[in-house]
Amino acid sequence: MEAKKVKLFLAMGVLLFSFSYDKLLGWRLPTHFPKPIYNFSSNVYSEAKVTLGRALFYDPILSLDNSISCASCHSSYNAFAHTDHALSHGIFDSVGTRNAPALFNLAWQKLFMWDGAVNHIDVQALAPLTHASEMGETLQNVLQKLGRTKLYPNLFYRAFGDSLINTERMLKSLSQFQLSLISAQSKYDRVKLNLDTFTSQEKRGYQLYTKYCQHCHTEPLFSTYQFKQNFLPLDSSLLDYGRGSITHNKQDTFTFKIPSLRNLSYTYPYMHDGRFLNISQVLTHYQNVEMLDRLSSTKPDLIAFLLTLNDSSFVFNPQFKYPREIFMWREGFNK
Amino acid sequence: MKQVLSFLFVLYWTFTLAQTQTFSIRFEPTYAAKPVVLNNLYILPNGNDSFQINLLKFYVSNIALVQTDSIVFTNPNFYLVDAQNRLSIYFDIPENIQFNALELLIGIDSTIQENSPLSGDLDPINGMYWTWQSGYIHYKLEGKCSACLNNNKQFTFHIGGYQGIDATQYKLSFNLPTNHLSAQLSFDVFAFLPNMDVAKECKLMLPGAKAKLYAQEIKKSWKLKK
């Protein structure tokens, strides 16, 4: 009798736990995805850290003139890419040299940036923070500014048990928010989980994808996240050598990180320099370099399939948007 | 009986395992075989130009004590040595070990580079982290030199790069008198000077062949002072 009760209690506990894990932590491994690369044991996932990370991500306090936040270049409505400009714009209206990539499924990536210059997501934020033409700040100054607010000591306290603000905590919280950006609910995903079916055109597109694209843009993440060349003509004004300028290995010259094909409808323009405005232009490029056939049905069929990779529930997820409720709370403080 | 045994155990424990002693390493940066003092004026080999060093910092890690080829003690810590205020480092070692050599790495190895705790001496706030391309600067030397052609006559040598052909971290080993508890290590801060045109190359801030060459020249200059 006693034992039975305990078992029942345990079973309920497990149920409750899996439910809350689902809902609160958000970091649920989609069942059809591989194991993540990110080591969560060195940065234990928690809702409070995600909240802190989300506030930091949307707060222009991270930039020198308090004008630019991470979200200025990585907008939730564009799957955290940037669509107004081919090349990113930073403080004092300066123009960078590359297109801001979409941010999702980052836990499955080992190297970051188009050329893999960044070796861990926890240190990624240091690059835009201190880049003269992005946010133009110093780490010291950012931490001091955060410490002077009423909001952040509180958010750090909630996340870490005391209000100490330091590099490690700031960076790992930013990572936590970004790691929570999982896109796994497109039509394609529903088909994989037997919850939906492809139209016959989407099926033909899937076959084309499997033949021509799959080995670089591999399912289910739609990238191997390796560095490869897709034979874009060199832009002589940018002279971007890609991964080659990081490794100094000849075979890496002009290779770039393979981007995911998920959410393409939201992440235009395409490629590291944003040179293509729509998917049709991308496919024309692949046809020009003979990586795709030129049958008249190819483009419409393949595009039909690519559109099944759009994940609107990710792009419009209220948990990923500008955290108005957190910043309203701050305004309350300042009064 | 039980009490006596546990008493003996505690005794054994305090006298063997718990007994530690302190090992110290003193770093002595030199130029032209003389110790460097920050902000002092020195003359370049060309006899005309002068320079002063305002900042010198470098990382030391993977410290180990060795008894004829087998490691008897490893120190997991990372030390940011700073000519301003930290030229000596101290750490505890067990009393009951025998050693006759010291090993250390100048720089940070690649596993830590890719999984840094981001705190303590490895906190990027120390100004030893490259942000646009991940990795620690292993060796940072800054100052002024009348030969430099830039406006402020400043030189900036940030030597780093940790992976593949660009790796600049290097291992040193020195024989010590048996169980000797200290080591004084000197090196030439500008050992790479003969390999460069000072006026043109007052700045190096990225990994690559040049950083690698400079690191190797400094490596050759390390000596254990007797």
Approximate shape of chain A: globular
Give the amount of beta strand of chain B, in percent. Answer: 35-45%
What is the string of SSEs of chain B from the N terminus onward?
HEEEEEEEEHEEEEEEHE
User: Biggest interface, and residues per chain?
Assistant: A-B, 25 and 22 residues
Radius of gyration of chain B: 21 Å
The count of DSSP E runs of length 2 or more, i.e. the number of strands of chain B, is 15
Q: Report helical residue fraction of chain A.
A: 40-55%
- Biggest beta sheet summary of chain B: 10 strands, mixed
Q: What structural class do helix, strand and pairing data of chain B support?
A: mainly beta
Poorly predicted segments of chain B: none
Q: Can you summarize the main beta sheet of chain A?
A: 2 strands, antiparallel
Number of helices of chain A: 16
How does this structure look, described?
The complex is a heterodimer of chains A (335) and B (226). Chain A is mostly helical. Chain A has helices at 2-25, 47-58, 70-73, 121-124, 126-130, 139-148, 151-160, 167-179, 187-192, 200-212, 244-247, 264-267, 279-288, 298-307, 312-315, 324-334, and strands at residues 227-228, 256-257. Chain A has a two-stranded antiparallel ribbon. Chain A is globular and about 60 Å long. Chain A starts with a helix and ends with a helix. Chain B has one domain (2-224). In chain B, strands 3, 4, 5, 6, 8, 9, 10, 11, 12 and 14 form a 10-stranded mixed sheet that branches. The longest helix of chain B has 14 residues, at 2-15. Chain B starts with a helix and ends with a strand. The A-B interface holds A 39, 42, 117-120, 122-123, 126-127, 129-131, 139-140, 143, 166-168, 171-172, 246-249 and B 113-119, 123-125, 129, 131-135, 163-166, 208-209.
